[in-house]
Structure formats: C-alpha cells, structure tokens
Write a structure and sequence with these properties.
Blueprint (H helix, E strand, L loop, with lengths): L23 E4 L4 E4 L2 E2 H7 L2 H10 L5 H14 L4 H9 L6 H14 L9 H26 L13 H10 L5 H13 L7 H10 L5 H12 L7 H12 L5 H10 L17 H13 L5 H25 L9 H7 L7 H22 L25
Antiparallel strand pairs: 1-2, 2-3
The structure holds coenzyme A (COA).
Length: 384
C-alpha cells in the first residue's frame, strides 16, 4: 500500500513474477536466451525445429530413435481435418490471416477426439497435433490466397519444407528450408511473453489446450507482439530507398511514433535472436533480387540509426521481428504470413508452458483497483 492508500499498480504486470519454470530463460540485461539451459546460439548452430519441439515438450533432447519417432508422429498428424481445410478455403480472401488461423485452431478442436481429455497423455498427443497442424494451416492459408488452393501436406517433409510445399505446390529448395527451419527454431519459445501468458490464463481455469492456443493466437496478432514483423516490413516498404531511411526515422520519432521491430519489455539490449537473423542479412546484401537487396540495405541503415539514437541511451534495440521481413521476402513468403508463421513456430512453447503450469495449477486472477463511485443513484430510463 502506498502513502495515498492506493495499492502499487504494476501496469502491464511489468516486473511481476507469476510462476516459476525451467523451460526458458530470457536474460534481458545480457541479451541471452536459453531453452532448457541450451543457449539459443548453440541450438541455432546445431539443432533444428523438430528437435527443439521435442526438447520443449519433453524437457530434454531426444536420442536418435526418439527423434525419428517424434518426426513420424508429426508427419502422421500433418494433414488437416477436411473441415479445417474447408474453413481455410472458404474464408474471405481479405480476412486477417491470424483470424483465419485462430478460427482454424478452434475448428480443429471439434474434430479431435482428445479435445476435452485433460490427461497428460492426451495433452501430449494434442501438442504434437497442434505443432504439426499449425504449420499445415499456415501453408494452406498461403496456398488458398495465392490461387493454388489447399495443397495436401506432404508427410515426408518437416514443418518448414511442408510449409513451402503447401504454399507453392513445388518441392522446396533445400537452402530455403534450412533458413525457414532456423526462423522457426528462433521463435519457438520465449518465456512468459504476452501470448504464452494469455494461453496460461485460459488454461488455468482448467479449460483445454485448444482454448489456450486459440487465446494465444489472438494475443500474438497484435503489432506490439507478433504483428510487429509484418509492420516492420511495411515500414521498410514505406521508406522505399536506403537514402530515405534517416529522414523517415527522424520524422517518425519526432512524431512520437514507435519503430516496429525495436524495443522489448525484457531485453534492454540487443535481442540475441535478432543478432542471429542479422547474420542472414549479411548474405542477402549480395542477393540477385533487387527488392531483397534494397530491403536489406534499408533494414541495416535503420538498425544503425536507431542504435545510435536510442540504443545505449534508452535501451531500445532491434528485436526478433525487425530483420524477418527481408529474410522472408527472400524466401518468397508474403508479408501477411509472417505473423501466422510466428504462431506456427511458437506453438511448442505455448503447449510446453500450459502443460507445465497445469502441474501446479492456480487460477490467474489479479486485482484491479476500483477508482469509480459507490452507491450511484439509479435514475429510471424515462428520467435520464
Ligand atoms: C515491445 C514494446 C511494447 C515494449 O515496450 P514497453 O516495455 O511496454 O515500453 P513502452 O512502450 O512503454 O516504451 C517505453 C519508452 O520507449 C519508447 N519506445 C519503446 N519502443 C519504441 C520503439 N520501437 N520505437 C520508438 N520508441 C520506442 C516509448 O515511446 C516510450 O517512450 P516514452 O517513455 O518517452 O513515452 C515496445 O518496445 C514497442 O512497442 N516496440 C515496437 C513493437 C515491437 O517491435 N514489438 C515486438 C516485440 S518482440
């Protein structure tokens, strides 16, 4: 309680610990990130998305037989129920892709015999299904928007390869699959971020995993969270040419606008995921594709300017969403799929946290300080 009799309010729950977990450590001071103790750099260098999904869901790395069994389970679950594929095909082409994805996940529950079974075994089966099918659903949204329709998933491919196959109808390029796989891995988990927290809040009422994931997708959609990747690319398009970057950024900051892809609630230094993605931009500077070269130059110019202006002085540094635009553009992925892809990569993290939270579940119910009137006189409608 403060001197004025009012409780101290932590807006946005900033700095508040609500649970403990060994899944992920975000070290915002030193710019380090760990999944179950493995540094993100180690995983990016040595692992892959499927192995990281196993790690997050099981708390340890698999041996070769376990990984192969896990990959087979994911492959078997890859096809979407007909009703889900139908919903994606029939949804309006101008609907927000995150709305389509959120609805698709809701409909998935209707055709999952495990939907309301909250046993550990059923939750693990549902997690595997969700990991596999979210990537299929995002591929289907892309295919249905670009005119090739719903391409049935290819169970011989992993999440990244199958996504490209469903998007284009063609066997994907091995290098593109490798790059997308890394992007999925980098986005797979991030502690109690807004979408994971909202999934936990839903799950903590002893609702079910599909409801939790549906909440999480709705939360991820916003431009202060997962929607920032698309917004950052839109800004780069609005800048147009590298030489316009300085004027654009100065005008935006003078107008108190936020530069999307910068700043973070926890990292007050360079986001380690952004650093890894930036390595790819160094390759893209020599791309044969002029649009990619141009976007890359704009991104690198904006990064330098923003660090000079707001880096050390204000703790506002590039985050994971800033460099994704040029990378995805190079891979031929349209901007409206960036945030859905973020969901398809964050799904193991959501499931892992929800399953862990249930082990010592407690309803999440914070307090709100009431600052209104009491005993307000009710005036009949005819006298108002
Ligand atoms: C992510 C984010 C919401 C976290 O911020 P937060 O902890 O809530 O902090 P605030 O939004 O209150 O920002 C604190 C100050 O920094 C400024 N700031 C934060 N991010 C900024 C950005 N990207 N560009 C310019 N200024 C920024 C705010 O304007 C504010 O300035 P003020 O104190 O003069 O009003 C915020 O940095 C942001 O909106 N970034 C852009 C969206 C984004 O990239 N989201 C993806 C996150 S992974």
């Amino acid at each position: 309680m403060q001197d004025n009799g009012k409780p101290k309010i932590e807006l946005g729950l900033e700095g508040v610990y609500f649970t403990e977990s060994g899944i992920c450590k975000v070290d915002g001071v030193n710019g380090r990130l760990y999944y179950y103790g493995y540094s993100i750099e180690t995983l990016a260098e040595n692992s892959n998305f499927e192995e990281v999904c196993y790690l997050l869901l099981n708390g340890r790395l698999p041996n070769a037989a376990e990984l192969s069994g896990f990959r087979n389970s994911l492959a078997q679950e890859r096809p979407l129920p007909d009703e889900v594929a139908g919903l994606i095909e029939d949804s309006p082409k101008d609907a927000h892709p995150m709305d389509v994805l959120r609805s698709a996940v809701s409909v998935m529950a209707l055709y999952d015999p495990d939907a309301n079974d909250n046993s550990d075994a059923a939750n693990m089966r549902k997690s595997i299904r969700l990991v596999s099918r979210l990537a299929s659903a995002v591929g289907a949204i892309g295919g249905c928007r670009n005119g090739i329709g719903y391409v049935k998933p290819d169970s011989s491919m992993g999440a990244a390869g199958n996504f490209f196959y469903m998007l284009t109808g063609k066997k994907p390029d091995a290098e593109a699959v490798k790059v997308l796989d890394l992007m999925l891995l980098l986005h797979a988990e991030h502690s109690s971020n807004a979408s994971t927290f909202s999934g936990i809040v839903t799950a903590a009422t002893l609702s079910d995993l599909y409801s939790a994931v549906t909440s999480a997708i709705g939360t991820l959609k916003g431009p202060l969270h997962g929607g920032a990747d698309q917004a950052a690319l839109e800004m780069m398009h609005a800048i147009g040419r590298p030489e316009n970057t300085e004027v654009y950024i100065n005008d935006a900051l003078a107008g108190k606008k936020k530069i999307m892809g910068f700043g973070h609630r926890v990292y007050k230094t360079y986001d380690p995921r952004a650093r890894i993605i930036k390595n790819r931009l160094e390759i893209l500077q020599g791309s044969a594709n002029e649009e990619v070269r141009n976007l890359t130059s704009i991104a690198l110019a904006a990064e330098k300017l923003m660090i000079d202006k707001l880096g050390s002085s204000h703790g506002i540094w590039p985050n994971v969403d800033f460099f994704s635009g040029p990378v995805y553009t190079d891979l031929g992925i349209p901007d409206y799929l960036f945030t859905p892809l973020f969901a398809a990569s964050r799904i193991p993290g959501w499931c892992a946290h929800v399953m862990q939270y249930w082990k010592s579940n407690r309803l999440v119910r914070p307090l709100e300080y009431y600052n209104g009137e009491l005993d307000t006189q009710y005036v009949p409608i005819s006298q108002r």
